[in-house]
Specification:
Layout (H helix, E strand, L loop, with lengths): L3 H8 L10 H11 L7 H23 L4 H16 L2 H4 L1 E4 L3 E2 L40 H4 E2 L4 E3 L5 H13 L6 E2 L3 H4 L11 H28 L24 H12 L1
Antiparallel strand pairs: 1-4, 1-5, 2-3
Helix pairs in contact: 2-3, 2-4, 3-4, 9-10
């Protein structure tokens, strides 16, 4: 019978030593250190050996590898060795602004009738509007989309903190220019959904599909002894005669992948 100890120490190993956390501390520290203190090769020589050594020690302590530690090691390799964020990376942001008139003030339209010099309402402009009617400006005439703003490596620590933090969580490097023309031409990325309604419909369909797959695979796991008896090999025969034509390794791997 599969025990919790087997699950946490053999199938999904977790942190077993402090060395597991050292790369997560050193990578942000390396990115926060400006070039005025350490050159590129000095930064690589100082941080990368420690990150690699502590990662391998963490794997040895766990008796295996996990996704987070591997991802951190690859991320450090990309940002410290293969690329140079200090010189090449620029964060791309874009914000909507209101159009101003020549005086610098934002123009608004009230929809009220004009008033003459003696304080009387000008009947020519006093138009009765339906109840609840509000005159609105065309959004395209009121707002504009300015050119993207590109922020290189910030000079001060206070501005570097959000810049580096955003870089570390941008695994796909969306909204980043990295001195790679095929990637930079697509930045800033275009929204995947034109409206919130389209996004909501897609999210609901994805939720229903995911829930159905999760429910079906959970029902299969309850019927396949391989998932409850650790002594059975992954190549053992499948429990259902209708599935005997499928390779057991392939089917069970797909079930585990669908559950993940």
């Amino acid at each position: 019978m599969l025990t919790y100890h087997d699950l946490t120490h053999h199938i999904i190993p977790g942190p077993q030593s402090f060395s597991y956390f050292i790369p997560h501390l050193l990578l942000p520290l390396a990115l926060l250190t400006p070039r005025s203190l350490l050159s590129r090769w000095q930064s690589i020589a100082l941080f990368m050996p420690i990150i690699v050594a502590t990662t391998f020690h963490a794997w040895w302590s766990m008796g295996g590898v996990d996704v987070i530690s591997v991802d951190t090691l690859l991320h450090a390799l990309l940002l410290l060795v293969l690329k140079d964020p200090w010189a090449d990376f620029r964060y791309v942001s874009r914000a909507r602004i209101d159009k101003d008139d020549d005086t610098g003030d934002t123009q608004t339209t009230t929809g009220l009738p004009a008033v003459t010099a003696n304080g009387q309402v000008d009947k020519r402009t006093s138009i009765v509007q339906p109840k609840g009617h509000t005159k609105r400006l065309d959004p395209s005439s009121r707002t504009s989309l300015p050119p993207p703003h590109e922020q290189p490596y910030p000079p001060t620590l206070l501005t570097r903190l959000p810049w580096v933090g955003t870089l570390l969580v941008s695994l796909r490097l969306n909204n980043w220019k990295i001195n790679l023309p095929p990637h930079d031409r697509t930045q800033p990325s275009v929204p995947a959904f034109p409206t919130r309604r389209a996004f909501a419909i897609y999210a609901l369909l994805s939720f229903a599909r995911g829930y159905l797959i999760l429910d079906l695979t959970r029902a299969y796991i309850a019927q396949d002894p391989y998932f409850t008896d650790s002594s059975l090999a992954i190549s053992s025969p499948l429990p259902f005669p209708a599935l005997r034509g499928l390779p057991p390794q392939l089917l069970r791997s797909m079930v585990v992948g669908a559950q993940a």
